[in-house]
Amino acid sequence: MQRLRRAADLGRDHELYRPARLFVNFFQPSFKPLAKQRDGARVRKTYSAPGTPHQRLAADARTPDAVRHHVQELYAALDPVALLRDIRDLQERLAALADTQPIGHPAVALQPIDRFLASLRTAWKDGAMRPTDRPLVKAKRGRRRPDPLIQATPDLLKWFEAEPWRTGSELLSRLQMEYPGAYPNKLLRTLQRRLKSWRSEQANALLFAPSEKMPPGPRPSPHPASSSTQARSKINEATDRTREHQYMRQYGVSP
After folding, report:
1. Taking CA atoms, which of 30, 33, 72, 205 is between 20 and 30 Å from 146?
2. Which residues pair with 36 in a beta bridge?
3. Which regions of 25-176 does DSSP assign to beta strands (E)?
4. What are the pLDDT digits (tens) for 33-67?
């Protein structure tokens, strides 16, 4: 549990255990292992039918009748929906005491029982419902080892801009001819990822290049489908050029 702002508020977390204890003991079934049998390297485990601690206590022959009767009366007076609402309401109060302000959620706010019950149908769409839940922001992993192609990047980029249809194997072969013994074959996958990144940047520049400057004055309103039509035409032109170069390379025709 996170550090709270005032020591006097530490007793407030005990209020959460009462509805949570009742909900787990009376309305949350679980499995219990009954036997385990080993057959060579395989282990076969046998579990009991799912049941709540209240059901196991009532079914046990060692339980006194007075205890069984008292637990049954307590179970009849409980409402699982009301307990779940109380748990979330107390979690919201505890989260408000933490140093970091919790992310507000409309479903955990104090509301009538009928609205809370109706919200359970779509609660799964909103992800985690606990007010104490915090999204984990995973930092993007950067490069851990030095770039093995840092010295050859200018040459590779120049060759790629001149002949963008060249594959990673062809560029690596040319690089090995230019610098014998410096770039082994295991760098092929690294070079292919580099080419994929360059082709993505080139496609973005081709599709989203800034338009030509228009003279000052009123501008005609563009057709709503003009931008998408231009983008498709550019993609088709790039695809045709790539297929043409592949055909010439396959049949030995010089461009």
Report:
1. 205
2. 45
3. 33-39, 42-47
4. 989 998 888 999 999 899 999 999 998 899 999 99
